[in-house]
Amino acid sequence: MGELRSLTVSQQVGLLFVALFGVLALVTAIASLRSLRDAPPEVAERHQRLRRDLRAVWVGTVVFWVAWASGAFVATLLTGLVSFVALREFITLSHTTRGDHRSLIAAFFVALPLQYLFVARQHANLFTVFIPVYVFAALPVLSALGNDPRRFLERTAKIQWGMMVCVYGLSHAPALLLLAFPGYEERGAFLVLYLVLVVAAAQIAQEAASRWLRRRPVARQISRSFSWRAWALGCAAAGVVGTLMYWSTPFKAGQAFAIGFIAGGCGTLGELAMKAMKRDAGVRHWAGRTASVTGAVGLLDRVAPLCFAAPVFFHSVRWYFGV
Amino acid sequence: MASLAEFAGLTLAFIARLITGAQGHWIGSPPKAEQRIYFANHQSHFDWVLIWAALPRELRAITRPIAARDYWTSSPFKRWLTHEVFNAVYVNRQRTDDQDPLEPLLEALRRGDSLVIFPEGTRSHRGEPMPFKSGLYHLAEQFPDVPLVPAWIDNVQRVMPKGEVVPVPVLCSVSFGAPLRLEPGEDKRAFLDRARAAVLALRPTEPA
User: Fold this and answer.
1) Which residues of B touch A109 (CB under 8 A)?
2) Which residue has the higher pLDDT, B34 or B97?
3) What kind and span of H or E run contains B151?
4) Which is nearest to A60 in space by CA: A269, A292, A302, A287?
5) Helices (H) and strands (E) in chain B, counts
6) Confidence class for position A5, pLDDT limits 50, 70, 90
7) Which residues contact A220 (CB under 8 A, 6 or more apart)?
8) Does the structural domain B4-10+20-200 have CATH classification 3.60.15.10?
9) Considering the entire predicted model, what is its pTM?
10) CA–CA separation, A134 and A11 (whole Å)
11) What does the alpha-carbon distance between residue A163 and residue A311 come to, in Å, rounded to a whole number?
């Protein structure tokens, strides 16, 4: 794979997307062929779920491709939009009151655009502290001015958490474009792709492993499928996928494995934390039966692992490589 | 070529969808281009826009809201918005002796338009809708063949509480239920209570 490294950027990009769309097309073709067969209802339902997931992957890949083709600015803007929709879903399911109205407006229409503006304008030092420091100070004050002391800590904590996960976490994905590795200019987008694929691999492998191993769940009340062994297999799969992609990154093969392992593991652990949140809010999927009444589209489900993995990935790479 | 009013309508629907999702759930009746009277709970100024955005585009043109004439024609912009964009039916809030206040609504129904009405008469701020006013009964009495479709608008009070001007993005939905008709000889109060119960029945259960 060493010779892949010597290709030009556009050749590598082309290669990656051809491979990605090729694999997707293959999987979709197999899935639709299989769904043509007569099947008992529970299998048919599984096919339906698979098709829905596949459609989401298609949409995600196409959006990703569009973002790539149109440059860092549009990519940041698109991520900002995803952040907005995810935060909207999060706030819908956390019970805020009328007293929070002003702080919610500040969160959606001031803090969120500013955060992505800082990313787009490459203020690396500002965007990493903006939400944990400044927004953290401002939002509770606005909520306090709303003159409603009931469950104040709970409400402000929810808003703050939503900001951290949906905005701060996710904004680290386009921020990868800022990392300036020596001799790796204009290739930041590969890091984003690396992160997305590694996290997705960890999720899929963990899901498959937990079905196959059938271990006793560690936290039954929260997730019926999460076990440490399945989690470790997910991490390992992420590491392998990361290693396979090392030629497109500034890492050496061993580093690519370790970083993939860490990012994938973070993503799946973050998914577990998000599951606990959902249990607390009383829904299984963000787009489950109850939530579908609120119109939630289940986007949060799909981006949550990325929200947890992106900041860890960003900062560990930045610290280790000193860029 | 879309006119400015059509364009404004599409923009408004887009904004409503961006802020609230404005999902329509057709539980008891499919969306259909027939004459209907939709009636819903009323919690916010945003309600009409939400119902309108939740309707399929083909139905928006034939579905009209009710607007108070004194308020919604008081400036050229308000007039343009209600008349050109939403094609509202104007009603007088002050009751005059020589005119039935429902007359403009009956006129619109005679022309074959669909209406959206909020039978509580005013916005309610507690969870339960208030008792329905009798307008719905009179419309049902005079147009027995028009299906009355109940609708529950969920979550909208969180988007824009009373006294606020900027909406907060929170997902909302509109659930449309099975159509009602006035039974022969049904009492006015009984019918209005039945209608209110039909709206309430669409309210999603709170997650445990």
Assistant:
1) 166
2) B34
3) strand B148-154
4) A302
5) 9, 8
6) low
7) none
8) no
9) 0.83
10) 42
11) 13
| Cβ distance of B171 and A92 shorter than 8 Å | yes
Beta pairing class for B148-154 and B37-40: parallel
Residues in A touching B159 (Cβ below 8 Å): none
Minimum distance, in Å, between the CA of residue A288 and any CA atom of chain B: 11
Q: If phi over 0 gives left and psi between -120 and 50 gives alpha, with beta otherwise, what is residue B126?
A: beta
Tokens of B23: 């999902």
**Residue from B22, B172, B192 nearest B117 by CA:** B192
How is chain B split into domains, by residue range? 4-10+20-200
Q: How many Cα atoms within 13 Å fall on the side-chain side of residue B121?
A: 10
Instruction: Determine how β-strand B63-64 pairs with β-strand B173-176.
Output: unpaired
Question: In sequence order, what are the beta bridge partners of B64?
Answer: B115
| CA–CA gap between residue A70 and residue A232 (Å, rounded) | 37
Q: What is the pLDDT of residue A141?
A: 93
Which residues pair with residue B116 across a beta bridge?
B38
Cβ distance A112 to A87 under 8 Å?
Answer: yes
DSSP string, A209-261: HHHHH-PPPSSTTT-SS--HHHHHHHHHHHHHHHHHTGGGSSS-HHHHHHHHH
| pLDDT tens digits, A33-74 | 877 777 677 777 777 777 777 777 787 778 778 877 777 788
How high does pLDDT run on average in chain A?
83
Q: Is B91 in a helix, a strand, or coil?
A: strand
